[in-house]
Amino acid sequence: MSRAAIQSASQTELPVVRTVADLRGHVRSMRRRGESVALVPTMGALHDGHLALIRHARSRCTHVIASVFVNPKQFDRPDDLAAYPRDEASDRAQLAANGCDLLFAPGVEQMYPDTFSTSVHVGQVTEPLEGAHRPGHFAGVATVVTKLLLQSLPDVAAFGEKDYQQLITVQRLVRDLDIPVEIDGVTTVREADGLALSSRNRQLSAEARVRAAELYAVLRDSAAALATGEGASSTILAKGRARLGHAGFEAIDYLDLRAAEDLAPLTHVDRPARLLAAAWLDGVRLIDNLPVVPDAG
Amino acid sequence: MSRAAIQSASQTELPVVRTVADLRGHVRSMRRRGESVALVPTMGALHDGHLALIRHARSRCTHVIASVFVNPKQFDRPDDLAAYPRDEASDRAQLAANGCDLLFAPGVEQMYPDTFSTSVHVGQVTEPLEGAHRPGHFAGVATVVTKLLLQSLPDVAAFGEKDYQQLITVQRLVRDLDIPVEIDGVTTVREADGLALSSRNRQLSAEARVRAAELYAVLRDSAAALATGEGASSTILAKGRARLGHAGFEAIDYLDLRAAEDLAPLTHVDRPARLLAAAWLDGVRLIDNLPVVPDAG
């Protein structure tokens, strides 16, 4: 979006609410007008990946609410929380320009008052991958997503496939707790060289930014090799990890083949699968994933 | 309620639904007629304590739904779960006779499908007392209550003060997760000799049933002594425990003075307080509690 477009959008003055009571007041008037409501939960620092969620939500419902809340409970490292980018003015302008109707931007004390003491835990799908590397992360995600969904009670909520394990964790918790909402996954938006958009990309040096695209290339090539069903998956994945090392990634948390539905470990692509990776480059932790669809025949 | 009343009530045929989809269908038509909805969650084996909840719900909303579900997740002992009384025909008749409009009686597979893996944990208020003696109990309660509330989305839900720690746990989780419902506590219903009504009372022998009233007498006398502010609370409580032993209680899990709001330990009644007890008689675990209000002056 051009600077002029941002300025014109911010002149439309996207309404912002900061309390649950005000949010509910807005939702009530939407409901009274018979409108359907979609929610897009974000942590701000919006980029085109988020805006794709907004546009998807727009296609599903007559009214779109975005939330911006940097949730301390889902950060396992204080330095990561402190470094997480925040820019509400830019977020607000981009949301308005992409068809969002309301921004919910609560403070920490609104979400977690002093005596707050409840948490939501999803088992099984949260255990491997991010769950193994970021203790407490998914309990933080599950708790805040439960709250955001119950604060707004939308018809639909949209989450990016970029955080694939988060997406299926949210789908599982919504089913298990009977939250009356549809959870839509939205395809990852990528740069021209394939790097998945992420608020963390801006923490990369210019030189590391160039090398970062290798994460996507490794996922793409490994997924294609796995899809053929030829060669051991362990060999294909070992080659992928070695290639990331050569590209300058300092550490690889995982490069793993999993069942798409429940993240069970897979050695053969005998059902819908997902290839997922997390790796460190230039002190920044990048994650990405791709579907693996068995070749026909 | 007389046998004749039960029979006449059962002739009115209280509607029963067993799936969340059917429950939601009923709630939707109530909402379309502009009715307000109250939920009374129970584990069945209904007695007048439950019926007081139904009558309270009736006074608050135009429509009352009762749920009957013996929740396996809140039992810490398999023998306790197996022995828990079940009598749907009697429950249904009593509900109809007391102004309930709909019974939701799901099976275990409806509430917890095979891959169910989510749980809700409330900290702080769940840690002492029942939480210390029944591992996992309150996570089971918090999870099933969250589900029941989100399945029906009532305006009000009623819980008995008999399970006081459960009541404040539910109030805490509803506030923390932003579930849009009011939680009402309803005063404990007692037999003529003071014994709190409980589905477990019917497991007592006739002789133990007589002695069981001493639990209430000890709570009443100890609460009165604590309210005066004279004498050490530890002495008063030790005397109460000794009296339960003399009455034939085999074991006392606790007889404790706690802050009414958050169950923090108290030695002086310097704010609204609650005296809570759990003790074993004739192999049956009985619990009860009373408010402790400081004497004026």
Q: Largest sheet of chain A, described in full?
A: 6 strands, parallel
Which regions of chain A contain 5 or more consecutive residues with pLDDT less than 50?
A: 1-7
Mean pLDDT of chain A: 95
The level-1 CATH class of the largest domain in chain A: Alpha Beta
Total DSSP helices of chain A: 11
Give the strand order, joined by hyphens, for the main sheet of chain A.
1-4-3-2-6-7
CATH architecture of the largest domain in chain A: 3-Layer(aba) Sandwich
Helix content, binned percent of chain A: 40-55%
Oligomeric form: homodimer
H/E series of chain A, N to C? Answer: HEHEHEHHEHEHHEHEHHEEE
DSSP E strands of chain A, number: 10
| Beta-strand content bin of chain A | 15-25%
User: Largest protein interface?
Assistant: A-B, 28 and 28 residues
The CATH homologous superfamily of the largest domain in chain A is termed HUPs
List the defining traits of the structure above.
297 residues; globular; 10 strands; homodimer; six-stranded parallel beta sheet; three-stranded antiparallel beta sheet; Pantothenate synthetase (chains A, B); alpha/beta; 2 domains; disordered N terminus; Pantoate--beta-alanine Ligase, Chain: A,domain 2; ATP binding (chains A, B); Rossmann fold; 11 helices
What does this structure look like?
The structure is a homodimer of 297-residue chains. With 297 residues, chain A is an alpha/beta fold. The first copy, chain A, has two domains: 3-186, Rossmann fold (3-Layer(aba) Sandwich), CATH 3.40.50.620; 199-292, Pantoate-beta-alanine ligase, C-terminal domain (Pantoate--beta-alanine Ligase, Chain: A,domain 2), CATH 3.30.1300. Helices cover 42% and strands 20% of the residues of chain A. Chain A is built from eleven helices and ten strands. In chain A, the strands form two sheets. The first copy, chain A, has a six-stranded parallel β-sheet, sandwiched between helices. Chain A has a three-stranded antiparallel β-sheet with strand order 8-9-10, covered by helices on one side. In chain A, helix 1 (3-11) crosses helix 5, helix 8 (137-152) packs across helix 9 (164-177) and helix 10 (206-228) packs antiparallel against helix 11. Residues 1-7 of chain A have low confidence and may be disordered. The A-B interface holds A 20, 24, 115-125, 142-143, 146-147, 150-151, 153, 172-173, 176-180, 262 and B 20, 24, 115-125, 142-143, 146-147, 150-151, 153, 172-173, 176-180, 262.
